[in-house]
Amino acid sequence: MFIRSSAAIAAAILLSSPALLQGASAAEKPTDPQIAHIAYTAGVIDINAAKQAQKKAKNKDVKAFADDMLRDHEVVNKQALALVKKLNVTPEDNDTSRALSKQASDKLAELDKLSGAAFDKAYVANEVAYHKTVNGALETQLIPSAGNAELKSLLQTGLKIFQGHQQHAEHVAAELK
Amino acid sequence: MKPGRLASIALAVVLLSIVVPARAATIQITMENLVVSPAETSAKVGDTIEWINKDVFAHTATAKNGDFDVMLPAKKSATSVLRKAGTVDYYCRYHPNMKATLKVEP
Hints:
heterodimer, A: mainly alpha, 7 helices, about 85% helix, B: 5-stranded mixed beta sheet, 1 helix, 9 strands, elongated
């Protein structure tokens, strides 16, 4: 029960507002191998969401947005893989990564039941929320915790591009209304 | 020298300056770390814009008014010659928060 509770806490933190992540950062500082794993996992999640959207989305702006997500997150993850190889770091699985993956697979299943405009709306709304959460985690937890300068710099580039994604998603969401 | 001859030379000089305009310039606009710089560029009709993408991400330089839409794959450059005067706001279609302005004088 104690072991499970730490995963539950991680999940609760990730599901809640970025402000709460700030509180968590002081208590638990992830290591570089864990940060690399979290960042890569977060990328894979959005890639999978984009692939689902490419198949299911109807609206052309939503389709274009999904194409953008796939293109950018694949580039960032490729950079991340090249960096961990160069630094000889093995990404380490952790509660935050596991909580992220669990939440994401639940979301994929939930969205899979939707179609047409309902899917488009739900996908974009989730993209807004997801990028908000990930950006909050990057800003308050992952970037300040990163020890290696190159890893920190890649995370900063990631944050910049994902902030753009969030704005883009918000714009598409507003257009769908 | 006869005055008539002088006049024709003067006329030739005037005509030459009309036929051969000031040399067209090449102006560089760079996209790096998801920022377009300079954010505002002034150029003249006939000038060439060299778009330089230093990012690992693909970008576009897309005019809001439809004047141009330049594809810039990661770490690639492209050029376009300005044919029309006016102030053009442009952005990246993939990263719409990348915005800048190009002022083209006649």
